[in-house]
Amino acid sequence: MQIAYRARDITEAHIVAGLLEANGIEAHVGGHYLQGAMGDIGAAGFSNVHVDDEDLYRARQLVSEYEQTSGSSLSRAASDQEDRPDHYARWFLLALAIVALILLQIY
């Protein structure tokens, strides 16, 4: 499975997944169980829409059309950020590690 779309939040991920499924592409939304970890975990890039490898090209075409018609400047296709590490997730994990180290020192 490949990431066809990186959503801002879980709701947007389901909207895009619904669009893909309405066009005959099976889509899976990832990031459900991470939603409770932080209030707006989607900002950290964990809400993604996954599709099968053979459907990736068509899914990205549909996502591109969705972005053009929705006028959303915050929407990001996975093709634009595929090789770039997620900045927010890296900082979140670093902060979590620091807090864990501090707690280990205290106890």
UniProtKB/TrEMBL annotation:
On whether Transmembrane is a keyword of this UniProt record, the answer is yes
Q: Does the keyword Secreted apply?
A: no
Q: In what residue span(s) does the DUF2007 domain sit?
A: 1-67
Q: Which UniProt keywords apply?
A: Membrane, Transmembrane, Transmembrane helix
Membrane-spanning ranges: 88-106
Q: Which SUPFAM superfamilies would you find in this protein's record?
A: GlnB-like (SSF54913)
Superkingdom field: Bacteria
Q: Which Gene3D superfamilies match?
A: UreE, C-terminal domain
Q: What is this protein called?
A: DUF2007 domain-containing protein
Native species:
Marinobacter flavimaris
